[in-house]
Amino acid sequence: MNRPLPIIATSLAWLLAAFFLFGAYGNIFISEENAAAYVAWGYPDWFHYITAILELAAGLLLIRAGSRPYGAGLGAMVMAAASLTTLLNADYGHTVAPSIVLLVSLVALGLSLAVRRAAD
């Protein structure tokens, strides 16, 4: 197996895990500004807890190699929803970050699957 590939995949997954775990914390203890953004986007006032649970799950799944593809896939779905939400609400200032994390999540998913195939 190409040795740098698992190192890159693991490093990227751990960075994503940190992002999602930090995001989960931010959605559990939400700021007034972010709570107002959820309301402006049309979500109920409790929806940030759903986002927090999904981000927490993605972050935890990304930590272990065996569950990494699931974490990357879940993270990609969360970020796709965030990107779509901001685009549909013409909140373009908040579109860039979730779009970048969506792309990174998809790369992490591809890398984790490639590492898994190479190990088999």
Automatic annotation (TrEMBL):
Superkingdom to which the source organism belongs: Bacteria
Q: How does it sit in the membrane?
A: Multi-pass membrane protein
The portions of this protein that span the membrane are 46-63, 70-90, 96-115
Keywords, A to Z, come to: Membrane, Transmembrane, Transmembrane helix
Question: Could you tell me which Pfam families the record lists for this protein?
Answer: DoxX_2 (PF13564)
Q: Name one GO cellular component term.
A: membrane
Provide the protein's localization: Membrane
InterPro entries referenced in this protein's UniProt entry, alphabetically:
DoxX (IPR032808)
Q: What is its main location?
A: membrane
The protein in question is named: DoxX family protein
Native organism is: Paracoccus pantotrophus (Thiosphaera pantotropha)
